[in-house]
């Protein structure tokens, strides 16, 4: 049996695996990216990139290709309630309409430039680990292969082989509905869709008809009967569902891209088990309400990538990986709760009608829509932290005035390293930073404004000092001195090194 060695195996070459592989390469780690499929498919399941995901791409300098390929939508939505981001103090006040197949191809181009090519037709069939390594047994067309690695990350979907072989539980709820969808779809007599195209009420269900491009549509029909999940995914079944819920199939033509899904909601009991980690749908599945699935997975990868790279390089201890579970399991719970709530709000029966009407009435209040918009876009996500200050918050899109001129902090994150940002005249932290030389970048300057504004409008004092993590979240900050800074540097950047140990 052939045996090979790498530092990290990433199983699954979808958007999550691709972004993770790229993050690991930015961090200087060798990656083997594998996928059981024989080649990339035209998977259009996801159709939009939320504002926070656009920031993630921006912070690595890879946003422009996405913007060039997609089209900005002027809203997000929560159970069909339109959520405008126009009043948010963020650089991207919209969700970018871009189908998953295009996202994958763009991300594959990026990782190829970074030295990683997906290895197709490679299925994970065995897994073992000890204190020194993890061994992945994979099936290829040429036979079995043993892959020795420091870590393996399962980005291999809701039916994750990595998760199952690691024995990680996947707790949650069974489906209560059945959905059928297809694109591209051509209709002889397409309806005139006025207003918002998503989650429109019908008979015992709801539907979406979205003009995706000139002459073709994306159609989805939801019925609150989970037994319908036993249907064959065919154009005939889609037409039948449209007639039941909408009253017409509008002369829908045959399409071979029909898919069935439900509202099964499950989350991995742990995102880390020793040398095995999970991200994306391998860690959490839910109904695709509000367009959060792909985005949540990419943000898993953004959180994990720099941490795993630091551990593999030997800059940080493996304890850093426990923060991945703590933070992203927390984020996944938020998404699962809000998607289940959206399913409940859309139920067409009389028992749920008062709930639906009350929610729509509440959503006329701008404060409520800002809370919902911040949640759906992930702009308002704050990781649990006992450090105080801005710790756990998303870094605002701010500029700092330095001796080299005004610099945008988002752009300074493109090297994928933590930033120690000093914004107080006369404070010199170069001696402190020396203990983490080669691992962090020191930025000294002054703020260009007296206060910073959070996405939903709250204003906060500019800190004197802050530690910004490579994923664009604040690890520590202070408006009064540096007590706690060294501890924070140890937590997020690894143990201090003496001068003789510096590389």
UniProtKB/TrEMBL annotation:
The keyword Transmembrane helix does not apply. It comes from the Bacteria. InterPro entries: FAD-bd (IPR002938), FAD/NAD-bd_sf (IPR036188), RIFMO-like (IPR050641). GO terms for molecular function: FAD binding; oxidoreductase activity, acting on paired donors, with incorporation or reduction of molecular oxygen, NAD(P)H as one donor, and incorporation of one atom of oxygen. Its cofactor is FAD. SUPFAM superfamilies: FAD/NAD(P)-binding domain. This is FAD-binding domain-containing protein.
